[in-house]
Amino acid sequence: MREIGMSIPELFRCPISLEMFSDPVTLSTGQTYDRPCIQKWLGAGNLTCPVTMQKLQDSSMVPNHTLKHLIDQWVFKGNLHYHQLNHDFSKVGSSKNVSFSSLKDTLQSKGSSLEQRLQVLEQVRLFSEDLPRKNEGLIQMGFFSLMLGMIFGAKITQELMNLVEKSLICALKLMPFSNLGDLNMLMEEESKFENFKVLLQQGSCMVKIALCSIIEKVFLQQSLAIIKELATKIGNDSKILKGMVVYIDDHQHNPDLAEAGIKAILTLSSSQEPAYRENLVKEGVVHSLVTYILEVEDKELAPKATKALELVLVLESGKEAFLVNEVLNCGVKALIKMVFRVSGDDQGSESAVNCLMILCCESMEVRDKSISGGVLTQLLFLLQSQCCVRAKNRARMLLKLLRSMCAKDPIHV
């Protein structure tokens, strides 16, 4: 331990990876390993302890809380130093003997200049490239919460926008390994939630994309009790939802922002809470998705947009929004286009067929426009393709529905 501050103590290193423990567990032989490493060892079919080579009669693992506590104390004292890492920080003018605690102090100090904070954020960004196996001190010392506080805690000014951008970059890198409950600071102080909305409306393109990523993460994990309330607040906020819809509308000038908006809207629409989808419909999402699908030839995003459209068309309000004259013609063309595309994927085709099924059961006009628009040919092509069985079954059902219409009304033949 005399080498604390100079290198990671051997006691804190996993004998398999030689990296600092993230989740130390002890086997029946008394040897301690990092949980991911020993799980990989045992998962490969090994029945022995890697260090002692004793046969394991019992493969159970007991968390080593004492060792974990010692490591946490060591990290919190700021003993994890830059020179342990294989980064060259000369470009940002850092000292190789600066600890995580001193970084945190600089960011939190009211006496630190904007330039000093920006330099530290660049260093934090470089460190976060080595998560989760290295530099987990960033997580243990609460840098994720600190980044969120810097993003949403201060009054938004143009001068601070660069600081917000860099903080968001760091927060996104830390988020997969951090406690999402930290996001609840947006619930605890209304001013922070208001800043969140201001940034969604007035922030730079990079800021808006990053915030969409946070929204996407919240709704992907909304089953967690710690962020369920936040998901509810976002899903019922008209300004936030309208902002994401507008991002899609701007797809010709800013495709990256439109992509972020579509992904966030898709995760939100996938929620089991129909009120969120109802709110999106009120903000014009049906028209925006239809226009995007019709105008954009993106093999990845067009299917996602079509899936989001399918999810809102389940609602009566969604169908009504589609059947409005200014949407109807473009909407049918967009869906027919998506039914079968060379080099397309199953998701887009299946969602397009599902949308047409929903609409054709509802509207004779949609059936008429679909047939005259060539959907029968597209469906036949789809059936001859290598798409999934589920998509083909839905295509057969739609063909049967449309053919029955043709039999009753020969004018459509």
Structural class: mainly alpha
Q: Report the β-strand fraction as a percent range.
A: under 5%
User: What distance separates the N and C termini?
Assistant: 86 Å
Helix percentage: 55-70%
Enumerate the spans where pLDDT stays under 50 for 5 or more consecutive residues. Answer: 1-6, 80-97
* Count of DSSP-assigned helices: 22
Overall residue-averaged pLDDT value: 86
Across the major sheet, the strand order is: 2-1-3
Radius of gyration: 27 Å
Write down the secondary-structure element order: EEHEHHHHHHHHHHHHHHHHHHHHH
Main sheet, how many strands, which sense, barrel?
3 strands, antiparallel
The gross shape turns out to be: globular
Question: In total, how many beta strands?
Answer: 3
Pathway: Protein modification; protein ubiquitination
Keywords: Transferase, Ubl conjugation pathway
Protein name: U-box domain-containing protein
GO molecular function: ubiquitin protein ligase activity
Question: What's a concise summary of this model?
Answer:
With 413 residues, the chain is mainly α. The protein contains 22 helices and 3 strands.
Describe this protein's structure.
It is an enzyme of class 2 (transferase). This protein is mainly alpha-helical and 413 residues long. The N terminus is likely disordered. It is globular, with a radius of gyration of 27 Å. Among the domains are: 61 residues, 2-Layer Sandwich (Herpes Virus-1); 98 residues. It contains 22 helices and 3 strands. The chain starts with 23 loop residues before the first strand and ends in a 5-residue tail after the last helix. It has a 3-stranded antiparallel sheet with strand order 2-1-3.
